[in-house]
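Exercise: predict the structure of this protein bound to 1,3-dihydroxyacetonephosphate.
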Amino acid sequence: MSEAKEKKIFAANWKLHKNPDQTREFFKNFLPEAQGLDCEIYFFPPAVSLEAAAGSLKNSKVKFGSQNCYRESQGAFTGEISAQMVKDLGGQLILLGHSERRKIFGEQDVLIAEKLAHVQSLGLTPVFCIGETLEEREAQQVQSVLEKQIHVGLSKADAKKPLVVAYEPVWAIGTGKVATPAQVKETHALVHEVLLAIGFATAPILYGGSVKPDNSKELLQIPHVDGFLVGGASLEPASFLGIARS
Ligand code: 13P
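Solution:
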């Protein structure tokens, strides 16, 4: 088992929330309380607040990174985020393929695969998001959708380099509709099988979608749930700490 899998991972995706001042204020309250936690903690602030996060997290074990990046380190790519520049700030992670990137910004599996290989080549850890929509679940397409996202998304990846996978059913994101423990159990087992078959069995698998302090304990008991990727409930220190304490 990889070192990463021995410890549960609690990852905060702040999406488009918190400016630099709000970021510093969050960590001022969060860090003293997080001292004794025996887990991995990741933060994904908006790009504009990465430098504030870097400053706040300088002497802590808490890791951070961006919510996206481009497949190149620099160049004529207006509006893009460079993983190399995130690394230069002390970031160690990049979130990739989030369903909001796929749906709102039209990101395709092939581009995500290129970004993922680029992030690994820089020695950073990609947190690779996958998940089906409600229509796909109702049409019994969960397996085929996740298989395609994984097979194409990891087609250029290096199994020997760090990788974290996050399964987030799109219908459970920001809706308050958390997947049932039975659905999480079945789907995480499926994701594990697909990863195992292509040599990525050591990658921790996070669950995401309306995770809250009152459902996190039960979900964390499920096999192949190695932690969470949390949106809304990661915006307040108290609720994210409540989840990390589960
Ligand atoms: P919520 O926790 O707000 O449902 O968001 C989940 C998510 O998209 C994390 O990446």
